[in-house]
Amino acid sequence: LGLEKANFIEIINDSVQLIEPLTKKKNQKLFTQFDSDIEVCVDKQRMQQVLINLLSNASKFTPPDGEILIKSYIERDQLFIEIKDTGIGIPKDKQKHIFTKFYQVNNVVPGTGLGLSITKQLVELHGGTIRFESEPGKGTVFIIQIPTDGGLENEID
Ligand code: ATP
Ligand code: MG
């Protein structure tokens, strides 16, 4: 990882800009909500990839006119990122598989099924965790937690 000091708000705003053409096409609302100052030590490009993977999933699996919220804050030296959608959700019996390489709930949907497995690896490389809560027919929220120092301590130990 190329850890460097970064303003996480910039990473969010860059990712949002890249994903907006997709959400606009489906007339989805994309909201952001974050603390005024989020200083972290992360690999900027990798974290941008994480956000783009999750935001593009949120758009892809949410019907037209739905809503997507990306929220971020720091609590006790941990950076939290939540990406929430009002989409189709993930069936309960499929939930344990979604981080598996090539897995797709419905394999007629365009994609390779690699996004979430890469996302999980990148979060773990930062010493973090990713989890989700999903209600079929209502929506899904992915929650990432990473140390604000990007897991620097893990690397030294
Ligand atoms: P790729 O990301 O490689 O283009 P993909 O989006 O299908 O393909 P993943 O991002 O790994 O693959 O997601 C795996 C599966 O998990 C998806 O195919 C979908 O069934 C389910 N999934 C992921 N995110 C969501 C979401 N926000 N809402 C509903 N289902 C989701
Ligand atoms: Mg994907």
From TrEMBL:
Part of the intact protein present: 438 to 594 of 594
Domain Histidine kinase span(s) in chain numbering: 1-150
Species classification: Bacteria, Bacillati, Bacillota, Bacilli, Bacillales
Taxonomic source organism: Effusibacillus dendaii
Name under which the protein is recorded: histidine kinase
